[in-house]
Amino acid sequence: TFADDKETRLARLIARGCHGSNGYCAARLPGLPAPQIAGGVEGGALIITWSPVVLATGYSVELRPAGVQAQWCCMDASEGRLLNCGEEGLRFGKDCSSCKVSGLPSNVVFE
């Protein structure tokens, strides 16, 4: 149920098919576009943009070296840097849809 000051809308999700090897059927919401990652002006920096979600209360940004099954590491919103994996930083606010992360090694490609 989605309500605003003008009207209330109801949505019903219907399973379109079974997913997975266990035959479990589940309704799915449409996916969001993948976040965009671009190189920053200076070396060792990335600009990340994403599609905001109306119901979001905040965003966590995680990065890892591309093409490797490495652990995802959080970014700290207050400092604009990547934390050590396993550490949790401050989240970005609900109205945020982009960030800059700096201090990255310039010879590593991230996802």
Task: Describe what this molecule looks like in 3D.
This protein has strands at about 1-5, 10, 35-40, 45-50, 60-65, 75, 80, 100. It is mainly β. The strands form three sheets. Strands 3-4-8 form a three-stranded antiparallel sheet, with no helix packed on it. It has a three-stranded antiparallel sheet with strand order 5-6-7, with no helix packed on it. It has a two-stranded antiparallel sheet with strand order 1-2.
Share of β-strand residues: 15-25%
Please count the helical segments. Answer: 0
Radius of gyration: 18 Å
> Topology as H/E string?
EEEEEEEE
Average pLDDT level? 80
**What is the helix fraction of residues, given as a range?**
under 10%
Strand arrangement across the biggest beta sheet: 3-4-8
Main pleated sheet = 3 strands, antiparallel
End-to-end span in angstroms?
34 Å
Derived from helix and strand composition plus strand pairing, the structural class reads mainly beta
Uncertain segments are none
- The overall strand count is 8
Large-scale geometry: elongated
